Amino acid sequence: MSGRRLLITGASGFTGRHAVAYFAAGGAEVTAVVRRKPAAELFPDGVQQYVCDLGDRRAVAAMIGAVKPDQVLHLAGKNSVPESWRDPLLYMETNVMATLYLLEALRVQPASRILVAGSRLKYRPGAADPPHPYSLSKTLEELVSLAWATLFAQPVLMAEPSNLIGPGPSTGFCSLLAQHIVRSEAAAVTGSAAPAAFRLSSRHALRDFLDVRDAVRAYGFILDSGETGRIYRIDSGTERELGEVAAKLLAHAAAPVAMDWGPQEEHSRGNPSPTPAVPAKPPFESADSKVPPEKSGDYAVISGWMPEIALDRSLADIIGYTRAGKEGRLL
Questions:
Q1: Going edge to edge, which strands form the sheet with 198-199?
Q2: Quick one: 257 and 173 in the same domain?
Q3: Quick one: 124 exposed, middle or buried, by C-beta within 10 A (0-12, 13-18, 19+)?
Q4: How far apart are CA 259 and CA 236, in angstroms?
Q5: Which domain holds residue 203?
Q6: Count of domains in the chain?
Q7: Where are the extended beta strands (E) located within the chain?
């Protein structure tokens, strides 16, 4: 890691801030790409900020020419399903065309490796219809990225993370519930009106949650030793019911917290009884048969990487971050 020139797009986002901090601490010469200069200092000392609109092809080419990165971690993109319905063209421009501009700019530096962060919400063309414009945009992003690897022999790799959690400015389920808990605590202290109930779509829906810091470590392994043209699935290997995860977060609450547990489930206040974790299929195992991980579908194994941060620690760190009111600064 030490000494390499690493360019990170989406650097001001949830995963991006963790990635910048991790790789800078490891000795990489990090360039953090942001769309506009942030009002507050987000990154460690020594990190170079580069303001660039990734939707501007010429600006992207100029950036690559100036930085000459050895590696690129492409985290920038849009990821809201509802917003993708309202502005589908924006999602094509941001998730597809911006990625293509990066890939094209990197063709003049054939040794530069790029890792593109994909999505579990992609679909399989020919086997299903796109469920929403976001899914379409991420599917097209994956297709063009892997095609560039084949057509132009570029060292392009894909990562497909699960639901990333941890301290930081996330808009995911765990962080939103943590914010609800902290608002409820504040209302109890001040005597003001408690916030409306936090609603889960389903207590029993299953999700795989992985700490963002583990995901960032995985990105490092893939960038250093991953095989070009492959997709690397990154998850904890354990699916958990949303009700169980909510219960673990609610156990940290210092005041009553209003919860709505979804359709056909009782409206309640406080903590439900936790439900046990449900082991998921191994992340690289076929749904239909027991096959070696490296032969399973489209996914490759991340050599040398395993998750290290337990769910309970992730949730405690989220609560701590939210209570501290860090305004985007990592713990």
A1: 198-199, 258-260, 268-269
A2: yes
A3: exposed
A4: 27
A5: 165-207+239-280+306-324
A6: 2
A7: 5-9, 29-34, 48-51, 71-74, 113-117, 156-161, 163-165, 198-199, 206-211, 231-234, 238-241, 258-260, 268-269, 278-279, 299-300
User: Mean pLDDT per 10-residue run, the chain (331 residues)?
Assistant: 88 96 96 86 92 97 97 96 96 97 96 96 92 96 96 97 96 96 96 94 93 98 96 96 96 96 55 42 30 52 93 98 71 44
Do 36 and 132 belong to one domain? yes
What are the Cα distances from residue 323, in Å, to 144, 181, 186, 208? 42, 9, 10, 25
State the amino acid at position 215 in one-letter form: A
Nearest alpha-carbon partner for 92 in 40, 44, 144: 144
Place of tokens 């917290």: 257
For the beta carbon of residue 315, count every other beta carbon within 10 angstroms.
23
In a domain, 296, yes or no: no
Please report, as a single letter, which amino acid is at residue 305. W
Q: So what's the pLDDT on residue 1?
A: 61
Q: Percent helix, strand, coil in the chain (nearest 5)?
A: 40, 20, 45
> Residue 291 is which amino acid?
V
Conformation bin of residue 226: beta by default, left when phi > 0, alpha when psi is -120 to 50: beta
